[in-house]
Design brief:
13% of the residues lie in helices and 33% in strands. By secondary structure, the protein is mainly β. The longest helix has 9 residues, at 105-113.
């Protein structure tokens, strides 16, 4: 990063969210207001913390894994839009679909940098629950793969019934399955 000028950083990351590790190692989303030339390096002005060096080890410039994002009691499928090389960081237009009404880009960025994985058995606690980056489950037991209904889960019998055969192998590889029995509708 040390070869970038302040103008380069402003064009690439200005107004976007990047990650910043805290003392415990967790990553929090921080907004880059602007970059400027310091005495001997490029400095970032962040909304949460001012005067951070561009080369600060706590900063995470890599775009986090998109996919299922848990925001409150809802889970959303967000796919990253292909953008030009110089557009980095998380911004509203980073995704192929609009964010749900009332959901802020900061909340989405924070959820992407600190994803929470839930167990299959906890699905009734929320409207929809993130199980992995590609799977979620709704309160009625409907399992979604990349935003599409693919299976039903029965808590009573601990059974996953797939409506699509090619998804069975994908589900079998997931850690959240635990000891659930997987079958296919005929």
């Amino acid at each position: 990063m040390n070869t970038m000028t302040a103008d380069d950083v402003n064009r690439t990351y200005g107004g976007t969210y990047i990650g910043m590790r805290d003392s415990s190692g967790s990553i929090n989303a921080v907004c880059v207001d602007h970059a400027y030339d310091g005495d001997d390096d490029v400095r970032l002005s962040l909304r949460s913390e001012h005067n951070v060096s561009l080369d600060d080890d706590r900063l995470v410039y890599d775009f986090p894994e998109a996919g299922m994002v848990q925001v409150g009691s809802h889970c959303y499928w967000l796919e990253r839009r292909a953008e030009r090389q110089w557009h980095r960081g998380i911004r509203t237009r980073s995704f192929t679909r609009d964010l749900p009404r009332g959901v802020s880009i900061r909340t989405v960025a924070q959820s992407m940098y600190s994803p929470t994985h839930y167990e299959l058995s906890s699905y009734g606690e929320r409207t929809s629950t993130r199980l992995s980056s590609t799977f979620s489950i709704h309160a009625d037991g409907c399992i979604m793969y990349r935003g599409t209904d693919v299976a039903m889960y029965s808590k009573e019998s601990n059974t996953i019934t797939c409506t699509n055969e090619h998804v069975v192998s994908l589900i079998e590889m997931e850690q959240w399955v635990n000891d659930a029995t997987i079958s296919t509708c005929k």
